[in-house]
Amino acid sequence: MHDDDLSPEELAAFRALPRERDPGDLLEHRTVRALRARNLLRQPERRGIVLSPAWLTAAAAVLVAVFTGGFAIGQWIEARQNDQTLIALRQQDAAQAAAVVQQTGSAYLAALSAFAEASRSSQKPHDVTQGREVASTILQAAANEMVRLSPEDPLAVQILRSFERARSDSTAKVHAATRQVAWF
């Protein structure tokens, strides 16, 4: 059939028809199913990695091990950084404490010097005795801390021995002067 065999109305109606038409997905599925039913088309091969349940279990175990290992290494690194931070803070605290000890020691010596000047001109022996007792107590406490800080420090040990000797001498004098009574 040629275009010449058609009447002008038929030719116009023919040209008005669409040139393409989408058959839809349903046609494709029916065609593929019919070809497979006749064994003209095989099932598509699965592409990618096909894993058995054993492989999947092993992969999951490896994943858990890697995650746990990463977590443990992260904790270890953080703990090490915390230790280094604490050491730095302690060193900084020790430096600050040493500065405070120096300032306090200087203030102690200045106060003792002022006390010595005031005791020379004081008319109240009770105040002088009380000031000497306070200064001795502070010196003894400082010597105790020095021995605790450095037990092998001979100077601090000698100061403490001198205090013990002075205490035992004063208690011996007090006991000799008092009456001794034996209670039953």
Features:
single chain, 184 residues, mainly alpha, 5 helices, 76% helix, rod-shaped
Word description of this protein:
With 184 residues, this protein is mostly helical. Helix content is 76%, strand content 0%. It has 5 helices and no strands. Helix 4 (125-149) packs across helix 5 (154-177). The longest helix is centred in the middle third of the chain and has 69 residues, at 53-121. The radius of gyration is 52 Å and the shape is rod-shaped. The model has no long low-confidence stretch (mean pLDDT 80).
Mean pLDDT: 80
Q: Class by helix and strand content?
A: mainly alpha
Q: Which oligomerization state do the chains in this entry correspond to?
A: single chain
Low-confidence stretches: none
Radius of gyration: 52 Å
Order of helices and strands: HHHHH
The share of residues in helices is over 70%
In angstroms, what separates the terminal alpha carbons?
Answer: 151 Å
Set down the secondary structure blueprint.
Elements: H1 8-16, H2 25-37, H3 53-121, H4 125-149, H5 154-177
Helix pairs in contact: 4-5
Quick structural overview:
By secondary structure, the chain is mainly alpha-helical. It has helices at about 10-15, 25-35, 55-120, 125-150, 155-175.
